[in-house]
Amino acid sequence: MKRFLLTLLASVIGCLPLLAQDQEPPSVSVAPPEAIANWQDMRFGMFVHWGPVSLKGTEIGWSRGREVPIEEYDALYKQFNPVNFDAAEWARVAKAAGMKYLVLTTKHHDGFCLWDSAATEYDIMSTPFGRDVVKELSEACRKEGIAFGTYYSSCDWYHPAFPLGSPGGRMEKPNPDLEAYGAYLQQQTTELVTKYGPLLTIWFDVPQSYGADLGIPMATNLRDMQPGILFNNRIYAEPGRTKKFSQQRAVGDYDTPEQRIGAYQDDRPWETCMTICRQWAWKPDDKMKSLQECIRTLVTCAGGNGNLLFNVGPMPDGRIEMRQVERLKEMGKWLEKHGESIYGTRGGPIKPGPGFVTTRKGNTMYLHVLPEAPDPIELPALPCKIVNAEIIGGEEVTIQTRNDSWLVSLPDAARQPIDTVVRITLDRPVMDLVAIEAPKEFGPATASHVFREDHGRYGPGKAFDGNPSTRWAVDAGTRECWLQAQLAKPAPIRGIEIDETPEYAGRVVKFSLKVKSGTQWVTVAEGEKLGKFRAEFDPVKATAIRLEISSAMDGPNISEVRVLRVSKLR
């Protein structure tokens, strides 16, 4: 019978002084620069969300007490017997995809543990399967040269000592004991490092009530055991925000934009976590991203100076769905040819622009030309000379200089349907250059309403700034409004993408999209649900675009608006 080994840990943590809620808490020390740089060089990793919930095909953690009754959810482990689980095959799939590391959900918000933990009976060893998944996968990854990391949920809606529970981490438990829970968390994370390390990272999530007074000594203890381990920015909750799920401040070693591509950032590392389908855990017939979406996501992350942690959800029998495996292998094939423009690179030296991103290493800048890029592509000239320019695997490219710009024109036959990568060799190391802004895609933006008239934080331009962490917002109760922007230059476009801010998605219930061509406004799309919306239409030379919201449940919030360009009108 396993026993809880928490008394000593609880007493030690209980002696630590509590931080006043109105004080700025100390931060977690960062990993050595070489460890962070090594992780950044990898650029591409696999995220795996898996557990007994796969038997139901619902979302891990979040469906407990929602789609699946709590008692039923908590008993799923008694049926969990993934007889086709093959850790070596998972590692081979990651390697074939060109992924350099793998992060497994060892414990999600539902509290179930995929390893043989001395702290709980609610783990993989109590299932009919009875094999230590973390042990097998960590060993398989190392054999394939894949760095191994663990996801660990800081909250635990199953554990009786954690203050909050299902559904959705909003139910208050009758007898919470954060001190005891903190000792439990520290014991389990210590197990992960000592039994399965060295780990690339521990990827914490949704701390809620788990604050800095517990999180900092826990992380310090782990770093003392393994100095090179990386932590993300969700280790502990911010004071005053312990029941919310928003991103944490910049603690740990890297930021974690979720289900979106981060904005360009070279002063702090980041990693986008995103699903290959829609749900994190396995769901039957879940909609899967196209190869173009997958490659574009990877390339745009690298161009913004970030990593991509791309998630799969294995099936109840332990296999990764074959269609997902095939898509990942297609990504690997692309990387076999173009990997030099991703691995070991940093974003820049030109920040992402309309239809392109750049990556760099040594004396080389890689220009990633996306399908909607105009022809020619106008780049701000760098303070160096071009030695050579050629398409990877293809012909040489001529780059003309005009005023303070470089004009890159590609033959139509040379353009690839997903990403045409141009290798540009320069006469000096490009890492010495400060990243510069790309030409603006949009000109002035206007709107009928702005939240509390705060144009600095919520003005219309925030929806067109290429930064998904900013937004245009309007006052609560606003049911009708409009948002409009000029294009920096008249340009042929074939579509428009709009992202409602995720935490306010679903408010817009009726809208239309208009494009100004010449002196006329033309309606190109109408709908009753916005969310992440994409409209495609016959190419038109546009000077402005406009979103008219004729009905909303509450004040709309828009994070990003993008136009899809064509190189030229036929």
TrEMBL record:
Residues 426-570 form the F5/8 type C domain. The keyword Hydrolase applies. Belongs to the glycosyl hydrolase 29 family. PANTHER family: ALPHA-L-FUCOSIDASE (PTHR10030), ALPHA-L-FUCOSIDASE-RELATED (PTHR10030:SF37). It comes from Novipirellula artificiosorum. Alpha-L-fucosidase is responsible for hydrolyzing the alpha-1,6-linked fucose joined to the reducing-end N-acetylglucosamine of the carbohydrate moieties of glycoproteins. Keywords: Glycosidase, Hydrolase, Signal. It is an enzyme of class 3 (hydrolase). The keyword Cytoplasm does not apply. The lineage of its organism: Bacteria, Pseudomonadati, Planctomycetota, Planctomycetia, Pirellulales. It holds the Pfam family F5_F8_type_C. GO terms for molecular function: alpha-L-fucosidase activity. One of its GO terms (cellular component) is lysosome. Residues 1-20 form the signal peptide. Gene3D superfamilies: Galactose-binding domain-like, Glycosidases. SUPFAM superfamilies: (Trans)glycosidases (SSF51445), Galactose-binding domain-like (SSF49785). Its EC number is 3.2.1.51. InterPro entries: FA58C, FUC_metazoa-typ, Galactose-bd-like_sf, GH, Glyco_hydro_29, Glyco_hydro_29_N. It comes from the Bacteria. GO terms for biological process: fucose metabolic process; glycoside catabolic process. This is alpha-L-fucosidase.
